[in-house]
Amino acid sequence: MTNLLIAVIYLVFVSLGLPDSLLGSGWPRMQADFGVPSSYAGYLSMTICFMTIISALLSAWLMRYFHTKWIVTVSILATVVGLWGFSAATRFEILFLIAVPYGLGAGAIDAAVNHYVAEHYSGAVMNFLHCFYGVGAVISPNIMALALKYARWNEGYRWTAFIQTGILVICIISLPLWKKSEGETGEETTDRAGIGETLRVPGVILTLIGFYAYCAGEATCFLWVPSYFAGTKAGLSDELIASFGSLIFGGLMFGRILSGFASDRLGDKLLIRIGIAAELAGILLVFLPVPHYLPAAIGFLVIGTGMGPVYPAIQHMAPVNFGRRYGASAIGLQMASAYVGSTFMPMVFGQLQAWCGIGIMPVYLLLFALMNIGFLEAAYKRSLRK
Q1: Do 166 and 11 meet the contact criterion of CB atoms below 8 Å apart?
Q2: Is 242 in contact with 145 (CB distance < 8 Å)?
Q3: Rounded to whole angstroms, how far apart are CA atoms 117 and 18?
Q4: Cα–Cα distance between 206 and 334 in angstroms, integer?
Q5: CA-to-CA distance for 271 and 276, rounded, in angstroms?
Q6: Cα gap 267→272, rounded to integer Å
Q7: Is 310 left (phi over 0), alpha (psi -120 to 50) or beta?
Q8: Is-contact 321 196, C-beta < 8 A?
Q9: What sign for the dihedral angle of Cα 207, 362, 273, 49?
Q10: Is the Cβ–Cβ distance between 12 and 129 less than 8 Å?
Q11: pLDDT value at position 359?
């Protein structure tokens, strides 16, 4: 039953990735239809991420009283509501209301499943789990590209909602697997520290800042990569620009496949160091002053590949670095700090590119990559001293 449960958990992470890349892929056309400035995507993304922060902070409390399976099922239902709502929106202002369930569902899924896998499974399972997030995130930009070619952006959300609804049905059918698997994987502990106590554990705050920096760069790529090509490379079609939204997600998926095979041998810390080195190499490719889009496209693919192992490795290390008692709250705090980066930094970049031009994007990404590795290395040293 454990293998069947892992398959369901992987499918849950496909559902987590599906909504994340739709806004960035569809925004150049959505912006024109709604008649709003390009920077407004940052405000909408901020609203979604703010809801995700709330659900991530509540996740440790929810896990005290509800089994992971119920948190996951209700959260997927919330994202289904969000996708259907976006597909039906006729005014830009309505999207902010729909962003509430859209964001709340994502944070609870992420924290609950990451904690469950970190406690019960190996680093390889964690990396493959996040690889399946990449599968969902790669699928949806291509769905949006097809919608822009044959219909409208609304259909991109609608077609994705059909897939998400199917995953929800599968999760409901598979609920008994969680109960049957408890004897094999172990009961989930109810002895969990609170947020205040966890923040006092050495290395936690430094890790939160490092995770914030990682997700600031990642979320900026999620939202602005298609717009980067639209603003710096001439003569590209709408559907080709939309398809560039899958570059980061394809790289993430590839990086996590590689990490899944290597994680048990290399360990989480070395994987993070190798990943950030690859990310820096990808940023240098995007820096190249070449008019053709290919070097930048390869660069963003390499950036995504380098980012691949960072997120799952940080999550997988939490129970080991900070102790099982603090694991759930540490992961919830990590998710919240990550979504703070995801919430505000794409919006900040939206304003920055309005003033300086979107060509400033590789400089912005470089700053957060250096912050990421710097604070994580400081956190390792602090944890070792503990």
Answers
A1: no
A2: yes
A3: 20
A4: 10
A5: 9
A6: 9
A7: alpha
A8: no
A9: positive
A10: no
A11: 87
| CATH classification at residue 223 | 1.20.1250.20
* Total of domains in the chain: 1
> What's the pLDDT at 366?
95
Tokens of 35: 């008649």
DSSP letter at 359 equals: G
52 touches 104 (CB < 8 A): yes
Please tell me the total number of residues recorded for the chain in this structure.
386
Residue owning tokens 């390869």: 298
Under 8 Å between Cβ of 90 and 222: no
Assess contact for 163 and 4: CB atoms under 8 A.
no
Distance between CA atoms of residues 87 and 89, nearest Å: 6
Region 216-237 average pLDDT: 84
At which residue do the structure tokens 């990735």 appear? 17
- Structure tokens that stand for 176 in this block: 């008994």
C-alpha Rg value of the chain to the nearest Å = 20
Whole-number Å distance between alpha carbons of 28 and 34? 10
Q: Which two tokens stand for residue 37?
A: 């400035």
First CA to last CA distance, the chain: 38
Instruction: List, for residues 67-76, the tens digit of each pLDDT value.
Output: 888 888 898 9
DSSP for 189-208, please give it.
Answer: P-----HHHHHTSTTHHHHH
Could you tell me the residue range of the domain that residue 287 belongs to? 2-385
Cβ atoms within 10 Å, residue 284: 13
- Position 187 scores a pLDDT of 46
- Amino acid (1-letter code) at residue 368: F
